[in-house]
Design a protein that fits this description.
The protein has a single domain, classed as Hypothetical Protein Pfu-838710-001. The protein has an eight-stranded antiparallel barrel. It is built from five helices and ten strands, in the order βααβαβββββββαβα. It is globular and about 50 Å long. GO terms for molecular function: inorganic triphosphate phosphatase activity; metal ion binding.
Length: about 210
């Protein structure tokens, strides 16, 4: 298990060029751009959402990664939570990997939950790795959309334009320091809602339409 510590920030589209040419990012190591296609799963009665658990399959190039994120805390955009990842051979959930060592005790066993797709988040991620305040930080610019196909037809969709600062090593305070420095020339705002939470909001909107 890894503990994921990241700071989510809202970014204005007018600041994209200023972000990409910011001296701190230019001084860092560019990680390129990749397309990430994600499908989130839950039971028909959304027991995972109730336990604040996120379960997804991510397609990235020829790889498929199954990820489980468990209940954590989110304060002013800073997210900390447990995270497990497994590379799987195809875009199908492998529930046998969701054992007691990682699966929340308050949930029934995963193979009893009739897990099914709930929504998707598809976006391009542009990466930089920055050394700042004795910390190594991954800076990720995500641009794309969240989509939910409603059971009775039609879709709900929301845009993604956000900056994620993820701690790779060092102290979490470095995330705030980097955000403050970037915020001197960019319009940035801490953002507590994860992509998964926004996807569930779209799903609830679909239910209301019914």
């Amino acid at each position: 298990m890894a503990i994921e510590t990241e700071l989510k920030l809202q970014l204005h589209s007018s600041d994209l060029d200023r972000l990409r040419t910011h001296p701190l990012l230019l001084a860092g190591t560019a990680g390129g751009t990749r397309l990430l296609l994600n499908t989130y799963y839950d039971s028909p009665d959304l027991q995972l959402a109730g336990a604040r658990v996120a379960l997804r399959l991510r397609r990235q190039g020829d790889s498929v990664i199954q990820t489980l994120k468990t209940r954590g805390q989110s304060i002013n955009g800073l997210h900390q939570r447990g995270e497990w990842e497994w590379e799987v051979p195809r875009a199908e959930l492998e529930t046998d990997r969701l054992q007691a060592s990682c699966w929340p005790a308050e949930l029934p066993p995963a193979d009893q939950l009739r897990l099914q797709p709930v929504f998707s988040t598809d976006f391009e991620r542009e990466l930089w790795h920055v050394d700042y305040h004795q910390a190594r930080i991954e800076v990720a610019l995500d641009i794309g959309h969240i989509r939910c196909d409603c059971p009775e037809g039609g879709t709900r969709q929301d845009s993604i334009l956000e900056l994620e600062l993820e701690l790779e090593s060092g102290e979490a305070s470095a995330l705030w320091a980097l955000a403050e420095e970037l915020g001197r020339s960019l319009k940035l705002q801490p953002f507590d809602a994860s992509k998964a939470q926004r996807g569930y909001q779209l799903f609830q909107q679909c239910q209301q339409v019914e």
